[in-house]
């Protein structure tokens, strides 16, 4: 039914030229965090992305969907001062790293609600061809780290985005067997346990690596800026 949608076809034809207005490669780390575990990974991912020359990395939160009284009953701490992103602001970025806690093997509803509001970007294919990675937090081992990443990929596919897993580029850290470690070839991760466990040094190192890795790929895909 969309074969005759000229807005989509025009947007696709513009893919090669739309990012040449700025020298810096913009990488947005967009996340939802209820208890702070995902946010800690996000902060480290931003540091990793910012370590790549010519990359401008920025943290964004998605809007909360729960009322304050509900969050209070859930003992959720106050939100950080990271700005809340709107769907249209996604179009400004050259690459993304999306992060969220797991709810029954899938991304939290707050992040899904945000993505559900990106229909305008889908209609014009403004995110097509842009690289994106995924990171996550679960309550336990086997609590859905890989299923959360797998089910999140569908969101990227419909926008025409390029999923960028970290694979085994983190090296020996991917094979840690003596200590509990979150994350997988799909992306960085952590285990929250009962809420008291915080991301470990190794998990934070993997998050930094993911940010640096995806930022470098985003920079390559953007290519050199057009001459004035």
From TrEMBL:
It comes from the Eukaryota. One of its GO terms (molecular function) is FMN binding. InterPro entries: Flavodoxin/NO_synth (IPR008254), Flavoprotein-like_sf (IPR029039), Flavoprotein_WrbA-like (IPR010089), FMN_Rdtase-like_dom (IPR005025). Gene3D superfamilies: 3.40.50.360. Its EC number is 1.6.5.2. It catalyses: a quinone + NADH + H(+) = a quinol + NAD(+); a quinone + NADPH + H(+) = a quinol + NADP(+). Pfam families: FMN_red. Residues 27-214 form the Flavodoxin-like domain. It is an enzyme of class 1 (oxidoreductase). One of its GO terms (cellular component) is membrane. Its cofactor is FMN. Belongs to the WrbA family. This is NAD(P)H dehydrogenase (quinone).
